[in-house]
Amino acid sequence: MSKTKKLLIGILLDAIGCVSYIIPGIGEFVDIIWAPIAGWLMTKLYEGKSGKVAGIVAFVEEAVPGLDIIPTFTLMWIYTYLLKKEN
After folding, report:
1. Which segments cross the bilayer (predicted)?
2. What pTM did the predictor assign?
């Protein structure tokens, strides 16, 4: 999958994670459903140890109330393609 496609998918998934703010009261219930899905999707987008760690971070970020605003998928893309040193 291309870097650009991963970035666009990541932005979309981050936006989906923020949707719970639109529905007061029901949002936290939606987060309970979305948290494991977000973690799983992160491990599928980014393989290896960093993908597994990011999956856990995405799960926790979505599960903890108030942290939905953090763009975890986009931050992982930045880490993977802009910050991480290539071996």
Report:
1. 7-26, 63-83
2. 0.88
